[in-house]
Write a structure and sequence with these properties.
Phospholipid-transporting ATPase, 1289 residues, ATP binding, nine-stranded antiparallel beta sheet, metal-binding, single chain, endoplasmic reticulum, globular, alpha+beta
C-alpha cells in the first residue's frame, strides 16, 4: 500500500508540474458584465497591439537613451562635454556641441517619423471591427479588435481577417472544414485546411455559443507556426485533443467558408503572428569586421599623437625661462604645475583631433548601402515577368558580402530545378511503362494517348495547345496574367496536367476489372487487381483539394469581350469548331468508352469549398462548359502530377473531405471511400499513408507512398513467394534506373487491416492525439507501428526540369572561384545526373564516392581519397578537377570530431561536392562546419521550408520564391525568383558593392587623417597648446558639408568594370577573395599617403607665408583651401567611371566651399571670438600667390599617388585593369573577343531538361571515377573507361 500511495503521489506531482506548462481557459460568457477582478481570464493580455517604441511624453529621453547605445554618439557627446571643462577646452564649447546636436536631432526626427507611421498602423488595426458573441443580446455584436479577450467566442465570415488566435469550434461547412490563407503569416498563397476540434460534435445541429461550457487547455504561447497542442475537457470529463489543424491564426484570411466560429486562445502580442514579427535581420559584414580592427589602430594612433602633444607641451613649458604673460592663473589663483598642464593638454588634444577616428564613416556606409540596395532591387535583369517578382533585400548591412563568397550551398529541387513535375515513368507489379510524350508542348492527345479527361471542355484543350510554346532555355514563357492565375491554382501548371497515357497500361487498367456489370465485379476488382490499387493509391494518398473557384474565374475570362472585332470573334469560333471536331474524332476511336464518357459529362460537379459533394446534372453543353472542369490544389507539385496521371487513366478525384474521398473509376462508377485516418508525411518517416474503408466491401485498406528505401524496407519479405520477390526486385531495378535518369522516385504499397487490428491501433492513436507531452513522438510511433508488412504496388518516376540558364550560371560561378555544394534529400544517382546536366561535374572530372556504414571504412576512404586528391592537385601534375559524392549516413560519420578535419581537407580539394540523402539538420551542420573551420564566406540558397536552417546558418542566405511556399524567402537575407539571377547578383552587384565600399572606407580613413594632421603639425609651432589655425565653423563645415557628398556618391555610383565585362569574365570575381580593395596593406598604404599629403599641405603654405605679416586665420584659410582641392582631386584619381552625378557633386562641393567661406568672411566680424575671419578669404583670393600655392601644393601632394597608379596600371596591371583596357576597345572587337572566350569555355546550356542533356551526353561521357566500396580496402584505382552510372557506391 505504501508503494502504491507513493506512486500515486508521484503521479499527482508530475500532473501538477505538467499543468504548470498549460493554460487553462474558460468561456467569458458566464462572467459577462462582472467586474474585471472577477473575470477568470483577466491575467492574460488584451488584443491591442503596440509596435511603437516611444510615447509622446517620453520621446526625447527614450530616444536619447536609444541613440546613446551607439558608440559614435557616446564618443562625440563625451568629447563635447569634456570641452566644457575650462582646463582642457579646445574650442568654444557652445559651437563645438553643434555637430553632435544636429546629428542627434536628425536621427530623432527620423525615428519619430517612423514611430508615427507605426502608431497610425497600430490604431488602424486595433480599431478594426469583428463580431464577438454576447449573452445579453444572444447573438454576435460588433467590437473592435482591441476589445477582444481570451475566452471570447468570435465569428469570422469568408474573406475576413482573423482578429486573434482562435480554436475552431464550428463552421458553416457540414464537414467542419474551414479554409484559410496564411500569406500574411508565412507567405504561402495556397489555402490551408483547418478542422473543427475532433469529437466536439458541433456540426450536427446549429451551434449555440452560450452552451459551450468546456474547459480549454493549451500550451503556453510560442512562435512555432507548425506546432500547437492542447485539449478540450467536456462536462463529462472527456478530453478531446487537438493540434495545429484546429487553430485559426491571427492575421490570416478565411476563404471558401461562409462562417467560422472560434474560441480565443491567444491575443495581442502572444499570438503566433505577433511573436513571429521580427525587424530587418542584422548581420555583421566581413568588411565591417576589418574596419573595426583598423579603427582600433586609429585609436592607438590618436592616443600616441595626444601623448606626443602632452609631452611636447610639458617640454615647451620646461624650456621657458619664465612664465609668459599669456599664461593666466587658473580659478584657484595660481599656475598649474607643468606635469598637470601636460596632462590637461592630453585631453585637449583628444578634443582637437577627435575626427581622427572616422565615426562618420559608419553613417556614410549606411547611406551608401541603402543606395546600393536601391539599385539592386530595381535591376531590370533581376526582374521575373512570369511571376511579377524582383530581388528583395531583408538584411540591409551585408550587400558587400555578396562580392566575397567562397562556398555556395544549394538545394536541388526547386533551386536548380523548376519544381514543376512531369509524370515520366511508372512501374506496376514489376512491369515498366514509359511516358516519354509527357511534357512535350504543342501536342494534343492523339488516338494512342486518349486521356479519359471527360471533364475538360474543347476550348480548354485548344487553349492549352495554343498556350504552349517551344521551351527555350527550359523556361515556360507565359504572360503575367497566366503566371498569376497558375499561382492561385497552386501547382496546376501545364506540366502537371499534360499527361499522355501509355496505351498498353491503359488497356491493362481497362481490362483488369473483369466483369463491371455488378457490384461483385467492382468488389473483386478492388480487392485483387494491383493495377487498380496502384492508381487508387495515386488518387487518394495525398492532400490534394478539389476546387472549382479558379475554373470559374477562368471561364469568366474566356467569355468573348464585347469590344472584340468581328474577325476576332469569327476566328475564335472557328478554333472551337476545329478543336471540337478533333476531340470527337479522338473519342470515337474508343467505342467501348463512349457511354462512360457521356455518363461523365452528366455526372456531378462540385462547387465552392473543396468538401462540397453536391452534384448537379446538366442538360446542355453550355452548362457543361461552365462548370465541368475541376481544379486540383496541391501542397506540392509531385502530388499534382500523380493525381493528374491517375486522372488520365480514368481514376478521377471527385471530392475530398476530412472524412471521405470520392473517386470516379475508369468505367464511370463513383465510389465514396470513408477516410478513417491520415498519417501525414514527415521528414523522419519520409512516408504518407491514408486508411480507407471500402464503400461496398467494408474492407479497411491502407495505401502508403514514400521514398523507395522507406517503403521497400516495410515489405513482408519473409512471406513473399518467388513471383512477388521477382516483382520487388524488378521494381527496385526500375527505381535505380529512374534515379540514374534524374527522376524523383516514389514507392506505393498497401495493407489490408482487420477490424480488430485497426480498432486496437485507433485507440493508441486517439491517446497520442490527446497527449500534450511528447505528442509528436507518440504520433510518429503509432504511424510506424501501422506502416509494416506492406504489399508492394509499384513505383513512379517524375521528372523535374532544370531551370533556365542553370548550367551557364554554375559554370560562371565555378570560373569565379566559387565552390558549389549541392545538399539534397534525393538519391545519389539523381544528384549525379543533375550535377552533370548543370555542369557541376564535367566529363573529365575525377569523382570520389563515399557510401559506407562503418566508421573505420569511412576513415580509410577519407585517407585514400586525400592521397588521390593531393596527387591530382600537386603542382606540375596534369591533374583533374575533383568532385565528391557522399550520402547522409556517411556524412554523419565524416563530421565527427576525429574525422571532420580529414573530410574538410578533402572537400577543399574538390571543386564540387554532392551530399545526398541529407536531412535539414545535416544541411545546416555542414554549412556551420565549413564556415567556422575553414574561415570562409558561405552562401546558402534554397526554396523550401527544409532549407531554412541552412539559409540561416550561412553568412549570406538567399531564398528562391518558387513552388514550395515562402518560408525560405522570409528567412533569407536576399530573395530571388530563379537560380539564374545568382549570376548577376554575385558577379556584378556583389563585385560592385564590395569594391565600392572597400574603396570608400579606405578613402574615408585617408581623408580624416590628412585633414586632422594639419592641426597636429601646427602644434609643433604653437607650443603644443591645442590651438587651431582654422576657424571653428569652417572646421565643422569641412567634413559636414564640403567633403561629405562626393565620397557617398563614389560609394553608390562608381563602377570599376561594366556589367557586361563582369558577366563575360567571371574570373574578375576572384578579386573579392583576394581583398584587393580593402586589406590591412591597403589601409596602411593609405595612412602613409595621408601623413605625406598632410605634411605637404602644411609645410608648403607655411614656407610660402613664412616671414610675412598674415595672421593665423589667413594662413589657416589658405591651408583649408589647399586641403579641399587635394582631398577632392585624390578622390578623382580613385573614381573609375565618371558620371554626371560625380561631376555635379565634385564641382558642387568646390562651389559650396567658396560660397560659404566668402559669405562667412564677409558677414562674420566677431562670430567666434577671439578669431576674426572678416574679409580674409576675399583678401587671399586677390593675391596671385594664393593660386600658386594651391596648384603647387596639390600637384606635389598627389604626384606620388598619381605616379603609383600610372606605373602599376602599366607595368603590373591587375585583372581589373586589363578588363578596363578591354572596354576601351571598339565595341565590335570587344564583343567578338568575349564571345570567343565564352565559346572556348562552353556557352550556356540552360533551358533543356537535364534528362535530355544526359541522354545526349551519355554516349560520349567517360567519367574518371574513384571507386571505393566497403569490401575493397586496398589501393584505390581510377578507371577511365567506366561509365559514371556503374560506379559502386
Amino acid at each position: 500500500m505504501f508503494i502504491g500511495a507513493l506512486f500515486t503521489t508521484a503521479k499527482e506531482t508530475r500532473s501538477r508540474e505538467h499543468e504548470k506548462d498549460l493554460r487553462i481557459l474558460v468561456s467569458n460568457l458566464p462572467y459577462e458584465g462582472l467586474p474585471k477582478t472577477k473575470q477568470p481570464n483577466r491575467y492574460f493580455p488584451g488584443n491591442a497591439v503596440k509596435t511603437t517604441k516611444y510615447s509622446l511624453w517620453f520621446f526625447i529621453p527614450m530616444n536619447l537613451y536609444e541613440q546613446f547605445h551607439r558608440f559614435a554618439n557616446l564618443y562625440f557627446v563625451g568629447l563635447a562635454v569634456l570641452n566644457f571643462v575650462p582646463a582642457v577646452e579646445a574650442f568654444q564649447p557652445e559651437v563645438a556641441i553643434v555637430p553632435i546636436c544636429v546629428m542627434l536631432a536628425l536621427t530623432a526626427l527620423k525615428d519619430g517619423w517612423e514611430d508615427c507611421r507605426r502608431f497610425r498602423s497600430d490604431r488602424r488595426i486595433n480599431h478594426t471591427s469583428c463580431r464577438v458573441y454576447s449573452r445579453k443580446v444572444s447573438g454576435f455584436v460588433e467590437r473592435h479588435w482591441k476589445d477582444v479577450r481570451v475566452g471570447d467566442l468570435v465569428e469570422v465570415a469568408s474573406n475576413e481577417i482573423i482578429p486573434a488566435d482562435l480554436l475552431l469550434l464550428h463552421t458553416s461547412d457540414l464537414n467542419g472544414v474551414c479554409h484559410i490563407e496564411t500569406a500574411s503569416l508565412d507567405g504561402e498563397t495556397n489555402l490551408k485546411r483547418r478542422l473543427v476540434v475532433p469529437g466536439l460534435n458541433t456540426q450536427d445541429s446549429s451551434f449555440e455559443p452560450q452552451n459551450f461550457h468546456c474547459t480549454v487547455a493549451v500550451e503556453k504561447p510560442n512562435d512555432n507556426l507548425n506546432q500547437f497542442k492542447g485539449y478540450i475537457e467536456t462536462s463529462d470529463m472527456k478530453r478531446l485533443g487537438f493540434g495545429i489543424d484546429s487553430l485559426l491564426p491571427r492575421g490570416c484570411t478565411v476563404r471558401n467558408t461562409d462562417l467560422a466560429t472560434g474560441f480565443v486562445v491567444y491575443t495581442g502580442h502572444e499570438t503566433k503572428s505577433m511573436m513571429n514579427k521580427n525587424g530587418p535581420q542584422y548581420k555583421r559584414s566581413k568588411l565591417e569586421c576589418k574596419m573595426n580592427i583598423d579603427v582600433l589602430f586609429c585609436v592607438i594612433l590618436l592616443f600616441s599623437m595626444c601623448l606626443i602633444g602632452a609631452l611636447g607641451h610639458y617640454v615647451w613649458l620646461e624650456s621657458l625661462p619664465s612664465v609668459p604673460l599669456f599664461l593666466t592663473p587658473g580659478s584657484h589663483g595660481h599656475m598649474d604645475s607643468n606635469p598637470l598642464s601636460g596632462l590637461y593638454m592630453f585631453f585637449t588634444m583628444i578634443i582637437l583631433l577627435q575626427i581622427f577616428i572616422p565615426i562618420s564613416l559608419y553613417v556614410s556606409i549606411e547611406m551608401v548601402k541603402m543606395g546600393q540596395i536601391f539599385f539592386i532591387t530595381n535591376d531590370v535583369d533581376l526582374y521575373e515577368e512570369k511571376t511579377d517578382s524582383r530581388v528583395q533585400c531583408r538584411a540591409l548591412n551585408i550587400p558587400e558580402d555578396l562580392g566575397n563568397i567562397h562556398y555556395v550551398f544549394s538545394d536541388k529541387t526547386g533551386t536548380l530545378t523548376e519544381n514543376k513535375m512531369v509524370f515520366r515513368r511508372c512501374s506496376v507489379t514489376g512491369t515498366e511503362y514509359s511516358h516519354n510524350e509527357n511534357g512535350k508542348s504543342g501536342k494534343l492527345p492523339s488516338r494512342t494517348g486518349w486521356t479519359l479527361e471527360d471533364d475538360q471542355e474543347p476550348e480548354a484543350v485548344q487553349q492549352s495547345q495554343e498556350g504552349q510554346q517551344p521551351h527555350s532555355g527550359g523556361g515556360h514563357h507565359r504572360n503575367k496574367e497566366t503566371g498569376n492565375a497558375q499561382g492561385k491554382a497552386a501547382f496546376s501548371s501545364p506540366l502537371e496536367t499534360e499527361v499522355v497515357p501509355d496505351r498498353k497500361l491503359l488497356q491493362r487498367v481497362l481490362a483488369g476489372g473483369g466483369d463491371w456489370d455488378g457490384c461483385g465485379g467492382i468488389r473483386r476488382c478492388e480487392a485483387t487487381d494491383l493495377y487498380l490499387d496502384f492508381f487508387l493509391a495515386l488518387t487518394v494518398c495525398n492532400t490534394v483539394v478539389v476546387s472549382t473557384a479558379t475554373t470559374a474565374r477562368a471561364q469568366r475570362q474566356r467569355v468573348p469581350s464585347l469590344f472584340q472585332s468581328p474577325g476576332e470573334v469569327l476566328q475564335t469560333a472557328l478554333q472551337k469548331m476545329f478543336v471540337f471536331s478533333r476531340l470527337c474524332h479522338t473519342l470515337s476511336s474508343w467505342q467501348p468508352m463512349t457511354e462512360d464518357l457521356d455518363t461523365d459529362h452528366n455526372s456531378g460537379c462540385h462547387h465552392s469549398a473543396a468538401g462540397d459533394q453536391t452534384s448537379h446534372r446538366h442538360q446542355s453543353t453550355s452548362e457543361i462548359d461552365i462548370s465541368a472542369q475541376r481544379c486540383y490544389v496541391a501542397e506540392s507539385p509531385d502530388e499534382a502530377a500523380l493525381v493528374h496521371a491517375a486522372k488520365v487513366y480514368g481514376f478521377m478525384l471527385i471530392a475530398r473531405t476530412p472524412n471521405s474521398v470520392k473517386v470516379r473509376l475508369p468505367h464511370g462508377v463513383e465510389l465514396n471511400y470513408q477516410v478513417l485516418d491520415t498519417l501525414n508525411f514527415d521528414p523522419h518517416r519520409k512516408r504518407m499513408s491514408v486508411v480507407l474503408r471500402h464503400p461496398i466491401s467494408g474492407e479497411i485498406v491502407m495505401y502508403t507512398k514514400g521514398a523507395d528505401y522507406t517503403v521497400m524496407d516495410k515489405l513482408i519479405w519473409a512471406c513473399l513467394n518467388t513471383a512477388q520477390k521477382n516483382v520487388a526486385a524488378s521494381t527496385q531495378r526500375h527505381l535505380n534506373w529512374y534515379a540514374k535518369e534524374g527522376l524523383h522516385t516514389l514507392c506505393f504499397a498497401k495493407k489490408v487491416l482487420s477490424e480488430s487490428a485497426y480498432k486496437n491501433w485507433s485507440l493508441l492513436r486517439q491517446e497520442a492525439l490527446a497527449a500534450i507531452d511528447n505528442r509528436e513522438e507518440l504520433l510518429m510511433e503509432t504511424a510506424v507501428n501501422l506502416e509494416k508488412q506492406l504489399t508492394l504496388l509499384g513505383a513512379t518516376g517524375i521528372e523535374d526540369r532544370l531551370q533556365e540558364c542553370v548550367p551557364d550560371t554554375v559554370m560562371a560561378l565555378r570560373e569565379a572561384g566559387v565552390r558549389l555544394w549541392v545538399l539534397t534529400g534525393d538519391k545519389a544517382e539523381t544528384a549525379i545526373n543533375i550535377a552533370h546536366a548543370s555542369r557541376l561535374l564535367d566529363q573529365e572530372d575525377l569523382v570520389i564516392h563515399m557510401n559506407t556504414d562503418d566508421k573505420a571504412v569511412c576513415k580509410s576512404i577519407l585517407d585514400r581519397s586525400l592521397e588521390e586528391g593531393r596527387r591530382h592537385t600537386r603542382p606540375g601534375y596534369p591533374g583533374l578537377s575533383i568532385g565528391l559524392v557522399i550520402d547522409g549516413h556517411t556524412l554523419d560519420m565524416a563530421l565527427q570530431s576525429d574525422l571532420v578535419d580529414r573530410f574538410l581537407e578533402l572537400a577543399r580539394l574538390c571543386r564540387s561536392v554532392l551530399c545526398c540523402r541529407v536531412t535539414p539538420l545535416q544541411k545546416s551542420t555542414v554549412v556551420k562546419v565549413v564556415r567556422e573551420r575553414l574561415k570562409v564566406m558561405t552562401l546558402a540558397v534554397g526554396d523550401g521550408a527544409n532549407d531554412v536552417n541552412m539559409i540561416q546558418a550561412a553568412d549570406v542566405g538567399i531564398g528562391i520564391s518558387g513552388q514550395e511556399g515562402m518560408q525560405a524567402v522570409m528567412a533569407s537575407d536576399f530573395s530571388i525568383s530563379c537560380f539564374k539571377h545568382m549570376k548577376k547578383l554575385l558577379l556584378v552587384h556583389g563585385h560592385w558593392c564590395n569594391s565600392r565600399l572597400s574603396n570608400m572606407a579606405i578613402y574615408f580613413f585617408y581623408k580624416n587623417v590628412t585633414y586632422v594632421n594639419l592641426l597636429f603639425w601646427y602644434q609643433f609651432f604653437c607650443g603644443f597648446s591645442g590651438t587651431s589655425m582654422i576657424d571653428i565653423w569652417l572646421l565643422i563645415f569641412f567634413n559636414l558639408f564640403f567633403t561629405s557628398t562626393p565620397p557617398i556618391m563614389f560609394g553608390v555610383m562608381d563602377r570599376d568594370v561594366s556589367a557586361e565585362t563582369l558577366l563575360g569574365l567571371p574570373e574578375l570575381y576572384r578579386t573579392g577573395h583576394e581583398s584587393e580593395g580593402y586589406s590591412h596593406f591597403t589601409f596602411w598604404i593609405a595612412m602613409l599617403d595621408a601623413f605625406y599629403q598632410s605634411l605637404v599641405c602644411f609645410f608648403i603654405p607655411y614656407l610660402t607665408y613664412q616671414g610675412t605679416d598674415i595672421d593665423i586665420y589667413t594662413f589657416g584659410s589658405s591651408m583649408n583651401t589647399v586641403s579641399l582641392f587635394n582631398i577632392l582631386l585624390h578622390l578623382a584619381i580613385e573614381i573609375k567611371s565618371w558620371t554626371l552625378v560625380h561631376w555635379v557633386t565634385m564641382l558642387g562641393s568646390v562651389a559650396l566651399y567658396f560660397t560659404v567661406t566668402l559669405v562667412y568672411s564677409a558677414t562674420c566680424i566677431s562670430c567666434n571670438p577671439p578669431s576674426d575671419p572678416y574679409w580674409t578669404t576675399q583678401q587671399q583670393m586677390s593675391e596671385p600667390i594664393f593660386y600658386l600655392v594651391c596648384v603647387i601644393t596639390t600637384v606635389v601632394a598627389l604626384l606620388p599617388r598619381f605616379t603609383y597608379r600610372v606605373l602599376s596600371n602599366t607595368l603590373a596591371p591587375t585583372p581589373l585593369i586589363r578588363a578596363r583596357h578591354l572596354e576601351r576597345l571598339d565595341p565590335a572587337i570587344r564583343e567578338q573577343w568575349i564571345k570567343e572566350w565564352r565559346g572556348f569555355r562552353g556557352g550556356p546550356q540552360g533551358g533543356r531538361s537535364y534528362q535530355k542533356q544526359t541522354q545526349e551526353q551519355e554516349p560520349s561521357r567517360i567519367t574518371p571515377t574513384l571507386s571505393i566500396t566497403n569490401n575493397h580496402l586496398g589501393t584505390p584505382t581510377r578507371s577511365a573507361v567506366r561509365h559514371h552510372h556503374n560506379v559502386e557506391l
